[in-house]
UniProtKB/TrEMBL annotation:
Gene3D superfamilies: Cytochrome P450. PROSITE patterns: CYTOCHROME_P450 (PS00086). Keywords: Heme, Iron, Metal-binding, Monooxygenase, Oxidoreductase. This is Cytochrome P450. Belongs to the cytochrome P450 family. It comes from Streptomyces actuosus.
Length: 420
């Protein structure tokens, strides 16, 4: 079957290296509530940037997340086999399921993220944060210039240790899983790199499933293995949902902590409001989620029928790919005013964001991420009140990911006043 003319159909080609997330988001927002774009690999889609339109689409009964049922390019085999983003439509998880399948896949995960269980994790997260800050101090002491990478040693490790405990991932598997997870969210890979990454992820998951089948525990992986045994999940869904919990529970919160720290260090007036107690850490977390959505773009959604009765006047045809641009949504001036680009923990609209999605797809781990963010920031700035960036913000390289919005590293000095 001949492939459709994917290339040169769209006015804006998204940058797979994500060199300027907010510059691109602003340019797309200027084109209207949604704009036609071209994804890496020449695949056409819509980028949806208007908060009201996003809310409507996220609850619309004719909008699906399941490419296997509702994306003709995928169903008909027109999508290039080596498309570098293919893993995001191949996977069968609660994040890509539609209708009854979404409820079926969500059910085994809900107990792990109940309010009671999340609150009970606070002491463990506080203990982990204290341990990591000890490690951070030791690493800085060993560095000749006192510079240490805060992302590697703290921002990523706190959520990683938390989510691996929830999933039941043995410590011996941590490094391999974390390395592959980082590659999965990289969107400028070559087709060969993307294929190798997917194969390695499958191998690691197969090993973990065998282990959890033989040595069950009180954890998410075991709950999913049990659901598979009961016929509630097939083998692909079992593996993919374990991976989804690890990736979503790790990377999103790492990006939240990452951007909160950078924003506070570059806005000392905002930091002073938080450390003095005049503004709670919860407002810092919410403003960070708005200002720097941890997930910049979510792949993807598909109309099951033409969506045409839309207040924006737009029509989304059956089977077109829709990407929700959360980076653009969080800075919409119609919601947040003319200073929407500014980080301001006192703004009245700090909680009016969609960083955790909306409606039936609202993130199961939202409250856990918020809790980790509050604990991480309070512990970090209590322990190191003179913390400072060791480089200018122009030297903080972004993650090469259309999906995850964070930095490759955050070089800091823990005792900044000693180096001024």
């Amino acid at each position: 079957m001949p492939s459709p003319p994917f290339r040169n159909r769209c006015p804006h080609r998204l940058d797979g290296s994500a060199a300027d997330v907010h510059g691109e988001a602003g340019a797309l927002r200027a084109l209207g509530p949604a704009a036609r774009v071209e994804l890496p690999g020449g695949v056409p889609a819509w980028s949806v940037t208007d908060p009201g339109l996003v809310r409507r689409l996220l609850v619309h009964p004719w909008i699906s997340k399941d490419a296997h049922q509702h994306w003709p390019a995928f169903v008909n085999g027109d999508l290039p086999a080596d498309w570098p983003l293919r893993i995001w439509v191949d996977i069968r998880t609660v994040q890509t399921a539609h209708g009854p399948d979404h409820s079926r896949l969500r059910h085994p995960l809900v107990p792990a993220f109940s309010t009671r269980r999340v609150r009970a994790l606070a002491p463990r997260i506080e203990e982990t944060a204290a341990t990591l800050l000890d490690d951070l101090a030791r690493e800085a002491a060993l560095a000749p210039d006192g510079v240490v990478d805060l992302r590697t040693w703290f921002a990523t490790q706190l959520p990683w240790r938390t989510v691996t405990t929830l999933v039941g991932l043995p410590e011996a598997m941590h490094d391999a899983f974390q390395g592959v997870n980082d590659m999965v969210f990289t969107t400028d890979l070559s087709p060969e790199q993307a294929s190798d990454t997917e194969a390695e992820a499958a191998r690691l998951l197969a090993d973990l499933i065998v282990l959890k089948s033989d040595q069950p525990g009180d954890d998410i992986a075991t709950a999913l293995v049990d659901a598979h045994r009961e016929g509630l999940l097939d083998e692909r869904e079992l593996a993919d949902n374990i991976w989804m919990v690890l990736g979503a529970g790790y990377g999103t919160t790492a990006n939240l902590i990452d951007h909160a720290v950078v924003n506070l260090l570059t806005h000392p007036d905002q930091l002073d409001l938080a450390v003095s107690g005049r503004v709670g850490w919860d407002r810092v977390v919410e403003e960070t989620l708005r200002h720097q959505a941890p997930v910049a773009n979510f792949m993807m959604r598909f109309p099951t029928e033409d969506v045409y009765d839309e207040p924006t006047g737009l029509t989304f045809e059956r089977g077109e790919a829709l990407v929700v641009n959360y980076a653009a949504v969080g800075r919409d001036p119609a919601v947040h005013g003319s200073r929407a680009e500014v980080f301001d923990v006192t703004r009245p609209t700090v909680r009016e964001h969609l960083a955790f999605s909306h409606g039936p797809t609202y993130c199961l781990g939202a409250e856990l991420a918020r809790l980790e963010g509050r604990i991480a920031l309070s512990a970090l700035f209590s322990r190191f009140p003179s913390l400072e960036l060791a480089v200018g913000t122009d030297r903080l390289a972004p993650l090469p990911s259309l999906i995850f919005n964070g930095h490759r590293e955050i070089p800091v000095r823990l005792e900044g006043n000693k180096h001024s």
